TrEMBL record, chain A:
Purpose: Component of the eukaryotic translation initiation factor 3 (eIF-3) complex, which is involved in protein synthesis of a specialized repertoire of mRNAs and, together with other initiation factors, stimulates binding of mRNA and methionyl-tRNAi to the 40S ribosome. The eIF-3 complex specifically targets and initiates translation of a subset of mRNAs involved in cell proliferation.
Repeat among keywords: yes
GO MF assignments: RNA binding; translation initiation factor activity
Keywords assigned: Cytoplasm, Initiation factor, Protein biosynthesis, Repeat, WD repeat
PROSITE patterns: WD_REPEATS_1, WD_REPEATS_2, WD_REPEATS_REGION
The protein's name in its UniProt record: Eukaryotic translation initiation factor 3 subunit I
Gene Ontology process terms (BP): formation of cytoplasmic translation initiation complex; liver development; sprouting angiogenesis
Family label: Belongs to the eIF-3 subunit I family. Belongs to the WD repeat STRAP family.
Segments annotated as WD repeats: 13-54, 55-96, 288-318
Localization in the cell: Cytoplasm
GO cellular component, one term: eukaryotic 48S preinitiation complex
Subunit structure: Component of the eukaryotic translation initiation factor 3 (eIF-3) complex, which is composed of 13 subunits: EIF3A, EIF3B, EIF3C, EIF3D, EIF3E, EIF3F, EIF3G, EIF3H, EIF3I, EIF3J, EIF3K, EIF3L and EIF3M.
Main location: cytoplasm
Automatic annotation (TrEMBL), chain B:
Higher taxonomy: Eukaryota, Metazoa, Chordata, Craniata, Vertebrata
UniProt-recorded name of the protein: Eukaryotic translation initiation factor 3 subunit B
SUPFAM superfamilies from the UniProt entry: DPP6 N-terminal domain-like, RNA-binding domain, RBD
Organism from which the protein derives: Oncorhynchus kisutch (Coho salmon)
Tagged with keyword Protease: no
Main location: cytoplasm
HAMAP family per record: eIF3b (MF_03001)
Function of the molecule: RNA-binding component of the eukaryotic translation initiation factor 3 (eIF-3) complex, which is involved in protein synthesis of a specialized repertoire of mRNAs and, together with other initiation factors, stimulates binding of mRNA and methionyl-tRNAi to the 40S ribosome. The eIF-3 complex specifically targets and initiates translation of a subset of mRNAs involved in cell proliferation.
An annotated Gene Ontology molecular function: translation initiation factor binding
Amino acid sequence: MSYSCALQKPILLQGHERSITQIKYNREGDLIFSVAKDTVANVWYSVNGERLGTYNGHTGALWCVDCDWDTKNVLTGSADNSCRLWDCETGKQLAMLNTSSAVRTCGFDFSGNIIMFSTDKQMGYQCFLNYFDLRDPQQIEDNQPYLTVPCAESKITSAVWGPLGEFVIAGHENGEINQFSAKSGEVLKKVKEHNKQINDIQTSVDLTMVITASKDCSSKLFDSTTLDHIKSFKTERPVNSAAISPIMDHVVMGGGQEAMEVTTTSTRIGKFEARFFHAAYEEEFGRVKGHFGPINCVAFHPDGKSYSSGGEDGYTRIHHFDPQYFDFELEA
Amino acid sequence: MDSLTTEELLGDLLREKPQEADGIDSVVVVDNVPQVGPERLEKLKNVIHKIFSKFGKITNEFYPTVDGPEGLTKGYIFLEYGAPTQALEAVKNADGYKLDKQHTFRVNVFTDFDKYMSISDEWETPEKQPFKDFGNMRHWMEDPDCRDQYSVIYESGERTAIFNNDAKDPIVSEERARWTETYVRWSPKGTYLATFHQRGIALWGGEKFKQIQRFSHQGVSLIDFSPCERYVVTFSPLMDTKEDPQAIIIWDILTGQKKRGFHCESSAHWPIFKWSHDGKFFARMTQDTLSIYETPSMGLLDKKSLKISGIKDFSWSPGDNIIAFWVPEDKDIPARVTLMQLPSRQEIRVRNLFNVVDCKLHWQRQGDYLCVKVDRTPKGTQGVVTNFEIFRMREKQVPVDVSIIAFAWEPNGSKFAVLHGESPRINASFYHVKNNGKIELIKMFDKQQANSIFWSPQGQFMVLAGLRSMNGALAFVDTSDCTMMNMVEHYMASDVEWDPTGRYLVTSVSWWSHKVDNAYWLWTFQGRLLQKNNKDRFCQLLWRPRPATLLTQDSIKVIKKDLKKYSKIFEQKDRLSQSKASRELVDKRRSMMEDYRTYREAALQQHHEQKIARLQLRGGVDTDELDSNTDDWEEETIEFFINEEIIPLGE
């Protein structure tokens, strides 16, 4: 490893009292949404870290957040057994969809018209993948998804939409990845390249690829349509989140274990690092320190000139790359 | 014995007794009995009776005599017991009994004679076993780049691999799943790798690590090799029975034969049998006894053990066939350390010690020095004080006073290192034993984070390590001038292993002691980090030992003189291999990039073809690029507070 990412001073977002569970940029990158275990959903200006507002209403830990392509609506999923739709600008709650168990993943499709969310296997209830069409207000009113897919075997732990809204790519607790059709609910494709839980799946900005982050200490790159396994990135710690750079052949990964899972951890400050790998060579080339606990979520700004990480410590850090980052090349 | 017929042998007995097979099983033949005439026969019979009736009631006896005027007994007799077990007892105990200078009884059960008599006269040549060629057993020593090998157990024991140590990256030589069920051991000269299994151990070797030999010992848990690699000793807590001692078995490695079995009460101080440096003797200590055996017969030296009342510990000199042992105080007799020469059993040195609480014996690698660490409670005090009694095997001994945590001799030299004091004030002191016998303190480093001493096997260099609870602090020292070369850390390191040449050091975090960050790190002898090797649930790394050098002292001197010449050649070789590795890496990267680009092109092609679909889904808005729909953009000017500067206006 020969490059230590020397960055400009990061912008620190302090607005959560408990660990961050997910962060997301909107399509244009001017906003960052952050959700945490403290029941709070925040939205910030990414340029200077100023908080724009909060979406109030959830009564339990928030697990997921998404924003539609037009930055009109926001979707959140919570352990309070609800998935809620919000007006991005005003913060008004537009819909509340009650479920029988915690909502673990959620997202808008490419068009912004269809939403999906999955529920946990809990309290006797199976894991379900639900689809609602927002153009049909009756579905929302009656809390009746037009399609609900049960997942009997291994519960869904992370999910994203495919390129044209035809299917959802879901990662499961056992390491499997399945494509669930948004029309019929059938499994179109499945692969098992990981052998432990998939903690995160994210798409490339053009939606052609997805990257997975797994408890098996590796991250893998797949083609979204064929689910062909393209690349693997190995570390010695469980990976909680991974993202693909929009402009460079880079991926970023964040991870670590929760304090209670490890009997003794290094008490050295800022031990948890975000790691940068070259996407084609599969080699690690840089690390960024700074978080005081495991990193739970990473995301690139859509313009690829900065990235953010949300941690167990409740902080979200926005890092802008310095010119060295873009010039850096591994000898080839 | 001349040929005898059954009639001749047993005529009387056969006539007297009906055909009962049991009778014969209770009969013993005693040979080397004095030949006496009739007038002394009665006396002879009484003597025989006295000796042999110890084993059971003698129901019948027969003293065959020579035909002729003197009527001397033939020199062998037959005795019958009440039961076959008594006959066996007689054989066990009376065989080898020395009646007098000329007569040592040989006792056998009669049935054995029958067995040997009925061996076919025709000799059948035993079938020729095909020669098992394991190849060059020293193959690893011929590596052109002189890479040493080491074994690694990881995935919590599921996988074992053998690597060649290259400064750049370890090179896999062999890798197998479930090669061993618990752990592995190398033989002392590196020839064999031993693996453990429920049913026994297996030895592997040669270029391809083929299975050389298998030893069946159910439930084996511990093993030990003789220094010459001729024998292997296995221990299993399961296999001991009264009749058949099987707890410890000594095997001949080349033939695979079981040489001898022994009882064992407890395996607490393994190895129970300690070998002399040349493998000629092995010994063990039991209550008040030191038993020394010789090879290859596996019999007790001089047919008896040594009675040493109170013996607490012993150890062999690594250089000579000398045993050091110590005995604690006994009433008026002070504690003593004794050095005994084998096989003569001559006591060549005895030293009395007073008020002793405990002793530990530390031999220097070459056997030049023995250090006895003596814990004493001097009269009139309550605390424990530690002395060193240094025996210079070639001269006199001199005591040294200090209280310590760890002690270690320099392997090839005459220095030793000592860790003493109490945390956090732990000191490391280096001493030199001079030619005149005086011990000189060279240097002391204070406030060290260390609990273990690791000398390079070649001497001069060493590492002071603070393992486990001391968080892996490492101090690399050059003892030629006692300078600290480097102070580094391998967080939570549990083990330190020098390679056999003293060029490299491995520190590791074993899964057996710490469940995260399991890895082994490679350092140079000066403390420069070369590699960090993470291995899933890494358990253990062991360097493969090297056999002794084949060079004479003179050839070594010559090589050292010409070192500059060799250095040049090696440096050039290193540079070439560096650039070769770079080239290999570069080539690998090129091909990976090509594959990636090919994939990306195809994916982007498909992406392009889906453009219309995308436009439709977003109501005609082109969002493919961030700036694809600039018409929609609004320009907004926002002011941010950046900085405050106070500029004093000039007067």
